[in-house]
Amino acid sequence: MILSTKVLDIKDVKLFNLNSYCDKRGSFLEVFKSNLDFKEFKLNYVQENESKSKYGVFRGMHFQKGIYSQAKLLRVVNGKILDFICDLREGSPTFKKIISIELTNENILFLPKGMAHGFLALEDDSIINYKCDNYYNPKYECGFNLFSSKLDLDLNFNKKDLIISKKDKKLKDLNQTYFFRNI
User: Fold this and answer.
1) Identified catalytic residue from 45, 68, 117, 130
2) Stated pTM of the model
3) What are the pLDDT digits (tens) for 140-150?
4) Distance (Å, rounded) from C-alpha 57 to C-alpha 122?
5) Is 117 a catalytic site residue?
6) 89 phi, psi to nearest 5 deg
7) Which of 21, 45, 62, 135 is catalytic?
């Protein structure tokens, strides 16, 4: 199932590359097994979500705060995305660090609690599926606006071309958002 693993530049964020079995009929992937020797697959995932986005849609940067914080196991089912992750854990050696990584259906991304997450759909009908270890609670929903924050990001796209919800456009700056303590 797992071909390789890579620890990314934010503490505890990990990328799993899947082994795809291909023949003239198509392909087959095992995408989840709770008996693997990776702690990221042994969490008690209680909710699974899926979103479908058109090319140019940006969703994020989102997270659940406090006791509703969520670890996530994320996979692109269809299409391709540019994924953004920000460490919001005070005291972490990578606090406020933001990274981006291109993901396809042959990757699984693990995000520990205390991360803000967002993505840009690089293809039409990009479908993202993610398991969460805690339930969504709208009262604990939070986020920040990646593009109104004064950040040194090397973005290879024009922000004016992005499709962003009104709700996401109204999110606060990174420095005004919620930060996690004791995670």
Assistant:
1) 130
2) 0.93
3) 999 999 988 77
4) 8
5) no
6) -90, 105
7) 62
